[in-house]
Queue: 2 jobs
Job 1
Amino acid sequence: MEYEPTIGIETHAQLLTVSKMFCSCRTDYATALPNSLVCPVCLGMPGALPVINQRAVECVIMTGLALNCHIAELSRFERKNYHYPDLVKGYQISQYDLPLCSDGWLEIQSGASNAEYAVRRIGIHDVHLEEDTGKLLHAPGHSWIDFNRSGIPLMEIVTAPDFVSTDEVREYVLKLRRALRYLNVSSGNMEEGAMRFEANVSLHPAGSSEKGTRVEVKNLNSFRALLRSLEHEIQRQGQVLREGGMIHRETRGWDEAHGVTFVQRSKETADDYRYFPEPDLPPLQISPEWVQQIRAGMPELPDERCARFVSSYGLSPYDAGLLTEERPVADYFERAVAAGQTEGVGAKAIANWTAGELFRLLHGQNLEIGAARVPPEQLAQLVALLQGGQVTMTTAKHVLQVMFHTGKAAREVVAEEELAQISDADRLATIVDEVIAAQADVVAQYRSGKETVLRFLVGQVMRATGGRADPNLAADLIKKKLA
């Protein structure tokens, strides 16, 4: 029998705030000494009272708006009770009955090929706010706890069980991460633990509307772990069902080294967590005016920006997608386009140089675009020099390299290295004569009718001039000389 999967994803994203969720401790714990960013509140000391971080609430509302959610006018924090070494209070302050955001959706593309792509709407059950736990560090015979992470604002985004393949999951998590980074609510850096996943997966007979028993896979810290664990779990459950076995509702962990899931415990329910309202925090009143104020301050989101790049700048969907993948790149490109307008340079040419040569240099040094020493205005100036015939394509690529490593302006590099294109026919004619004299065999082939060797002769002129000759002028001179 063939089986089909049903998948839901829970995403935990640490929020970009200066202080923790319920206290004033700093959140830059990644480089801090263990247990150096703590206080009585985030250590759960008796009598310590939490205070809600307003910026964290705004981040969640902003995310909810981006995910087309309903924003609750009344929201509440609750105590989620469970005992684990890195949860110092014995409970986590979270949201359950009255989350900040609910009933939203995110559109993804689903299909086997570009021709078959169709837009699918993935339901967002809720987006709620909670606090992160501490971090356990293990070594043979020892374990340590670092509470610097305890109390970091954590946003949980819970989907409906709408995914039917791992390809859809991949599309969703990439798009979600891109949106969170655009909003500047989360770094999404999984190597720092700022984004983590939990997956719920079940199998049912193909064509059946009845869902199978759900299994949760916990603490997946990378896209690779998420997708590999899903693929393994789909295969494992299918094998169990085909052999006549039963799937048990349980929580499983992921063994990255062996590529398998393993049983951690039977699945907890809401009753197991004994949720009850947090007595030290009042309910949150969210006014429509506050929501509108947050909405007005939101940036343009990736899908909208990509569509605008296509319609306003005449870019292909592929180029627009590359340039809007990261907000800093899109911002850089638009600044370059604005500068190019005064130089008479079109957006398409700037897009080609940004996504081409500049990306190549950045990737070669493993740098983000914010670290590039080529301001967008100087990139536009370089393209203007090329289009104006003041430098050749070969020279322009060299100039960009120098700009990238030194921070110098385009015109400054051209002047210092005397790289201006040679467009003087008399000056170039002498070099053409020397090339023709040195390439007697090739000249004979050209005169016998093999005109394709003209490119070789032009290349020799370019080589003799260090790539500075006007290639069109060089070709015309060669043709005249050999006519």
Job 2
Amino acid sequence: MRIAFDHQAFCLQKTGGISRYFVRVAQELAYAQQQVGVFAPLYRNQYLNDLDKSYIHGRGIQNYPPHCADAMVSLNGFVARSLIIKWQPDVVHETYFSKRASGTQICPSILTVFDMIPELGIQSPPPSEYELKQSAKYAAALRADHVICISECTRQDLIEQFNISPEKVSTIHLGCDAVVNVKREALTHQSAPRPYLLYVGLRGGYKNFERLLQAVACSKSLRDDFDVVAFGGGSFNTAELALIQRLNFAPNQIRQNSGSDQSLSEAYSAATAFVYPSIYEGFGLPPLEAMAHSCPVVSSNTSSMPEVIGDAAEYFDPLSLDDIASAIERVVLSNALTQSLIERGRLRVQRYTWKACAEQHLQRYEFLAQRATSI
């Protein structure tokens, strides 16, 4: 069947989880002999370099002119819609949220919702009912013929917040790329000076990094014997540096690193444990990446985490410093629990493949296309 992906994610993001997801799904659909079209006339997304150029209706550029990003996205949308209509797809997958449809009314459309963080007020005050109903996300979800959510937790949040019929919304879990899988045994010659706990990604607000530091600081065994490495998310800001100093950590005990996928893979593989203190996630890929690198996972017990991680983590209440510290201690001070989590993680992560993810997408596409032809 002919499956069109619109311009939005590829014009809005140079890199990022949303655009990576659509590229990986498109790749797997192409491997399955489906006709795939990505309609992004002037895109700036790097992941599209991994997709066969024959599937891309557009041209990549380094960046948009300063202060012109919004205008460029709108212009791309205008041109992309004409190209999509001419291509005559069986279904259009809108890759982000817009008040304007990317296809025609007779062509079924599908949308993916990744989380409901703004609507739930996780990071800032929630919108009023008027603001919610004026949002592009609300308009796109109501307009779509079907909505995919990346976890059952997100699905339930979407149904409740937008008052959408449950029959219109389904759950499809993401796939997990193992990044660059490095065996732990191969890292003995380049190990860190001390064992370390690994944190990955952005750190502000609901990501709860500051509580992780406070929990480590209040545990004598963790403070005395472990460093904390934060990979990605940018350099520590002024508030984070002040907190580190106020908690009296030793020099360089709390470090921020960044680098390539290879560097991230090595960080996972050499860590004593991966800690995921986030208060809310729509899905949460880093714990699965850690499992793919035989790194034991210690995680928050809220939102989608138990659904995605299952029995392959030691859980804690992310609002309790004592609970965070105790859960980490149970793992890093027990070889038996560490090995058990590693084994459970290896089994758990095998569930999350991009092939399976794409197959479930194709089922939804085929259902919508068949329904459209029968009307």
